[in-house]
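Morning F.,

Quick status update on the modeling queue. The single chain you submitted on Monday has been processed. Sequence for confirmation:
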Amino acid sequence: MDNDTTPRIGIFFLLVGGALLILFAASIFSQDTNLLYLLLGAAALFLGFIFRRRAAPPPPSTRFSGIRKVNERLKTSRAARIQKKEEKKKR
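Structure tokens below.
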């Protein structure tokens, strides 16, 4: 299957499974327990989790890329300063 449709199918099964479990809870309250709703709901939730897990990870976010670059520069400059201080202590 296409990598874009697999997560959507997983979400569909998750929604159907949740709805079936709600129907099961409603059948308990109505004193007419229907275990088929429970079994089908659990199976749909299981399939939904499987399809969602197999989905490709999302692409890396480009949001706040400027802030990330500034943080990386600060980290490298701090590391360089610490290294220079350690070299001076050794001398």
